[in-house]
Amino acid sequence: MDTSNGQCSCGEVHFEFTGAPINKAFCYCRSCQKLTNSDKWFGFWVPVDKFRFTKGTPETYSRLGDSGKMMHQKYCGKCSTTLAIEVEVAGFYSVAATAINGSNNDSPTMCIYASHAPKWAQFPNGVPKFDILPPEMSGDG
Ligand SMILES: [Zn+2]
Ligand SMILES: [Zn+2]
């Protein structure tokens, strides 16, 4: 099976995952805006059992998601790069696209929480846009 890997800016924390992500989403929620100081977070959704940290131990910041279940943000304690957000309600990690090696040519498959975006947000052309989530999904990230 294909293995992808990545790391934070300083290289203290490394991760890997196997298989193709189940989704590649731009999330425009308020938490993602604050996390990135931009309009969105680009996350590759990887089931928890396919993802692991291979070097270093990330710090964890846990917050309550819209779903009522916790979101666990995993970040490097040295350089503060957020590497992944564990979305408890849905059993996946939203892995930071920018931290994944070789992901520069990937594109998002959907935009979520678009109704929470700031006025200056940028939306890609031709990518489905949802006010919150597609009807069949729950949880954010
Ligand atoms: Zn680091
Ligand atoms: Zn978000």
Distance between the termini: 25 Å
What is the 3D form? Answer: globular
List low-pLDDT spans.
Answer: none
**Main sheet: which strands, in order across?**
6-7-8-9-4-3-10
Helical amount among residues, as a percent range? under 10%
The CATH architecture is Beta Complex
Q: Which structural category fits the helices and strands?
A: mainly beta
Percent range for β-strand residues: 35-45%
Keywords: Lyase, Metal-binding, Zinc
Domain CENP-V/GFA: 4-121
Family: Belongs to the Gfa family.
InterPro entries: CENP-V/GFA, Mss4-like_sf
What do these coordinates show?
This protein has a single domain (3-116), classed as Metal Binding Protein, Guanine Nucleotide Exchange Factor, Chain A. Helix content is 5%, strand content 38%. It has 1 helix and 10 strands, in the order E-E-E-H-E-E-E-E-E-E-E. The strands form 2 sheets. A 7-stranded mixed β-sheet has the order 6-7-8-9-4-3-10. A 3-stranded antiparallel β-sheet has the order 1-2-5, with no helix packed on it. It binds zinc ion (2 copies). The site of one zinc ion has 9 residues, from loops. This is CENP-V/GFA domain-containing protein. InterPro entries: CENP-V/GFA (IPR006913), Mss4-like_sf (IPR011057). Belongs to the Gfa family.
Write the topology of this structure.
Elements: E1 3-7, E2 14-18, E3 23-27, H1 30-36, E4 41-47, E5 51-55, E6 59-64, E7 70-75, E8 82-87, E9 92-96, E10 110-112
Parallel strand pairs: 3-10
Antiparallel strand pairs: 1-2, 2-5, 3-4, 4-9, 6-7, 7-8, 8-9
The structure holds zinc ion (2 copies).
InterPro entries: CENP-V/GFA (IPR006913), Mss4-like_sf (IPR011057)
Family: Belongs to the Gfa family.
Keywords: Lyase, Metal-binding, Zinc
